[in-house]
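lol forgot to send this yesterday, sorry. struct tokens for the thing we talked abt
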């Protein structure tokens, strides 16, 4: 068609040329009229479903289409079946439609999962160990009681300093035995408190290389870059929680003034043995302090590690199996839980990876 038109045009030009200026050509061809398309529809009947109307679809090869002859949706048609209870659903009647839709009318509550310990996986290298619990009915499972091998993250503590009282003192022996804090510097002395460490008149300070020293000076001398603090149990009974936080703030500020690039890790106070609770020294009081300590850490941008919770029993006191002396001190098993919590924190906050 196009070819034909071009040819016709060319002929017309030739004729015009031949005719010369001023003369009208008489030989121009006529363009044929366009052919008119008439739709030819095929019909398809779309049957109704439970939730959608049916209809007839008319389609032409050109793409044009329309629908008509609507047939209303049928709605679900349920068949009732007696339903046995499982972990997530109670006993009752289940109504099921052929389309797959179903619902349950429960006449008893779900059974709930019934977990049994399937496996205790020991930690290996930097991979944590765990206890695997599996439901005896439905195969659902979860992991908890995470543990770390002594060597996990040990080099993270190369430039770490632990400071504390007699509770932390136990950590010196624990780490000498298990090396789970690597070459960390552990500064501990029975009876020191936030009060004695910040009070300029007090001589009850920490020893570093045989010399009584202020914490901020020790941090400078040993080149510590991470400070882990576990203090408060010797202050809270006498000072109350708010004033104890103020003393802690002074201690941390003293350290940061001389050592501005030190990262601060505040550990919660550990619980005490139930029979040791007396007067103002109670687990409830220490909990109160820990709540405030966490708020303080958050506000200042310091780390807060809850080492207390996994050491507690149902009575909110130090578990007997973690207690050294039916008092406030933890034994090796308690130290292991303590270090596990620190390592879990490092893992969860991705701090070990960042430190490499
Ligand atoms: Zn058409
Ligand atoms: Zn249905
Ligand atoms: Zn289950």
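and heres what i got for the seq, position by position
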């Amino acid at each position: 068609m196009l070819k034909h038109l071009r040819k016709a045009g060319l002929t017309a030009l030739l004729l015009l040329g031949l005719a010369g200026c001023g003369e009208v050509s008489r030989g121009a061809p006529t363009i044929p009229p366009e052919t008119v398309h008439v739709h030819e529809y095929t019909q398809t009947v779309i049957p109704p479903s439970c939730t959608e109307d049916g209809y007839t679809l008319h389609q032409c090869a050109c793409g044009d289409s329309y629908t008509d002859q609507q047939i209303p949706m049928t709605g679900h048609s349920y068949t009732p079946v007696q339903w046995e209870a499982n972990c997530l659903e109670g006993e009752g009647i289940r109504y099921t439609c052929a389309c797959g839709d179903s619902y349950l009318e429960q006449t008893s509550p779900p059974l709930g999962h019934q977990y049994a310990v399937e496996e205790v996986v020991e930690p290996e290298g930097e991979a944590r160990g765990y206890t695997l619990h599996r439901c005896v009915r439905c195969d659902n499972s979860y992991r908890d009681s995470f543990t770390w091998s002594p060597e996990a993250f040990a080099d993270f503590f190369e430039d770490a300093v632990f400071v504390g009282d007699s509770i932390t003192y136990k950590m010196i022996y624990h780490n000498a035995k298990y090396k789970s804090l690597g070459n960390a510097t552990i500064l501990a002395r029975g009876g020191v408190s936030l009060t004695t460490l910040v009070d300029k008149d007090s001589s009850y300070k920490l020893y570093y290389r045989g010399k009584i020293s202020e914490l901020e000076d020790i941090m400078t001398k040993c080149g510590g870059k991470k400070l882990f603090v576990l203090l408060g149990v010797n202050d809270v009974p006498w000072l109350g929680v708010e004033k104890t936080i103020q003393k802690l703030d002074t201690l941390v500020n003293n350290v940061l003034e001389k050592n501005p690039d030190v990262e601060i890790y505040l550990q919660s106070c550990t619980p005490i043995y139930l029979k040791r609770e007396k007067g103002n020294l109670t687990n409830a009081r220490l909990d109160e302090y820990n709540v405030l300590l966490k708020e303080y850490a958050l506000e200042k941008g310091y780390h807060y590690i809850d080492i207390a919770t996994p050491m507690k029993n149902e009575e909110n006191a130090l578990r007997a199996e973690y207690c050294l002396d039916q008092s406030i001190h933890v034994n090796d098993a308690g130290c292991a839980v303590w270090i596990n919590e620190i390592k879990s924190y490092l893992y969860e906050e991705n701090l070990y990876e960042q430190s490499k």
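The pocket of zinc ion (ligand 3) is lined by residues 87, 113, 135, 137-138, 140 (CB under 6 Å). anyway ping me if u want another try
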